[in-house]
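Researcher: Structure for this, please.
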Amino acid sequence: MNNPYHDIERAKKFISILTDDLEKIKNPKVKEFRIDALNSFISLINSFEAFLEQKYKLRSLEGLLCSRLYTMIFTSISNNEAISIHEIVRKIDHDISYPEARKEALVSSLFTENLKRSIKSSNKLPSECSKDWLVLVDDLLFQIKSQLIWN
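Model: Predicted structure, token format:
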């Protein structure tokens, strides 16, 4: 099977060549037909590109959802709790609907854990504040999103 991205790049080169050749066409009807054909071809290529991008984004999202499901089910099993699929779906839906709330909870947990460890090990408060943890989480999220393989 051909690499679809290679095919798209090849098609774009042909579009460019055909577009450049438009100036040489003298007959207005032929020129209009060529423009319509090129526009249809461009639209098809753009749709195909969007479809491919969406496919890989959905695959990445599915992987993240499976990871979240695994963690939640494993936690229920570890705590000898009943597994409630409805509750798991509700929590995932909440996470998707309110990502900022999830990020704030993560930052708060990191800050609290750091505070506990600092007090336990040295009986001193840490010098970092929760804002530093927010920057750390934002940087981490950016790195993860940058390294996801979309194609």
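Researcher: Any notable elements?
Model: The chain has two domains: 1-83, 98-151. Residues 98-151 form one domain.
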